[in-house]
Amino acid sequence: MKFLITAGPTREPLDPVRYLTNRSSGRMGYALAGAARHEGHEVLLISGPTTLDVPAGVDFIPVETAQQMYDAVQDMIKGVDVAILCAAVADYRPVVCAEQKIKKQADKLVLELERTPDILGSMRSVFGFEGKLIGFAAETNDVIAYGRDKLVRKKCDMIVANDVSKPGIGFDSRENEVVLIYPNHEVYLAQDTKEHIALQIIEHATIIPS
Ligand code: CTP
């Protein structure tokens, strides 16, 4: 099967030397790419900036901004069987990126932000993707309810949801504990390394019925 996986944070520039980003390490997405390759699949990883090595045998497109990630996914989606959108895409970006470094002036500086394009939400409606679609959801409460709502709204086959309020798992850590949310049931994956969680997610992804 052909997998497309997004990973890492995005960087939304404010001026030539500054950007808005988040604490995503990219580990979950890279682990998914490695696991899918390990299982013999063809894998394309589209990632924002991380310090990780691209797993051997995985095709790679580096991006920085949400818009670049959106464009790369749109360009590469044809022929993909399973898309796993794991990236922690910035939801907002500065409306303007200053051409020169912003110099300090007043005591307060107000930034105007605008929504970035929703890659997951565009997969069906804009890109016409018909393969298996897996999204991620990071929640601090009502994990199942919010995850199921996302599953329906974004026309996904499965949502991998985690509770980011729990210490030691998820964002920027080596371990994760997730719930796989399907239209009619859930599967709990106990806390484990992201590599082990990734193998289980890939196993589930490959057996989603058409
Ligand atoms: N995602 C995306 N493009 C964006 C934002 C998010 O593709 N511009 C994807 C992520 O890769 C992930 C899922 O959407 O698969 C997360 O959905 P989102 O609604 O952004 O999640 P939260 O930030 O958890 O949701 P909310 O803002 O609704 O709390």
Give the helices and strands, then pairings.
Layout (H helix, E strand, L loop, with lengths): L1 E6 L4 E4 L2 E3 L6 H12 L3 E6 L11 E4 L3 H11 L5 E4 L6 E3 L18 E3 L3 H4 L9 E8 L3 H11 L4 E6 L11 E7 L4 E8 H13 L4
The structure holds cytidine-5'-triphosphate.
Task: Describe this entry's structure for a reader.
The chain has 210 residues and is an alpha/beta fold. The chain has one domain (2-99, 106-206): CoaB-like (Rossmann fold, 3-Layer(aba) Sandwich), CATH 3.40.50. The chain has helices spanning 27-38, 66-76, 119-122, 143-153, 194-206, and strands spanning 2-7, 12-15, 18-20, 42-47, 59-62, 82-85, 92-94, 113-115, 132-139, 158-163, 175-181, 186-193. An 8-stranded mixed beta sheet has the order 5-4-1-6-9-10-11-12, with helices on both faces. β9 (132-139), α4 and β10 (158-163) form a beta-alpha-beta unit. The longest helix is centred in the last third of the chain and has 13 residues, at 194-206. It starts with a strand and ends with a helix. The site of cytidine-5'-triphosphate (CTP) has 17 residues, from α3 and β9.
